[in-house]
Sequence to fold (83 residues):
Amino acid sequence: MTTPTPLHTPAVNMPTLPTPTQKIRRRSQVLAHFGISASTLYRWIERDGFPRPIQLGGHSVGWVETEIQAWLSNRPRMGASSA
Fold:
């Protein structure tokens, strides 16, 4: 007898959906906030653990502000000693 396959398998590394009180930042806002290009943003996502965007509509995405703040607060500070 085989084990039934679940109908829904949770996706790995999917961003959490925001609550109504959380702010969503559009791509242009994220780029302006950090002063970076779109290619840098997507490189951060792939290499540096920057939060993945959530789909807002057909061609629009956004980032949950609290996820951006958490990522930023976990970044190492320049000149910090590792002692």
About this structure: The mean pLDDT is 84. The first strand starts at residue 24 and ends at 26. The chain is about 35% helix and 10% strand.
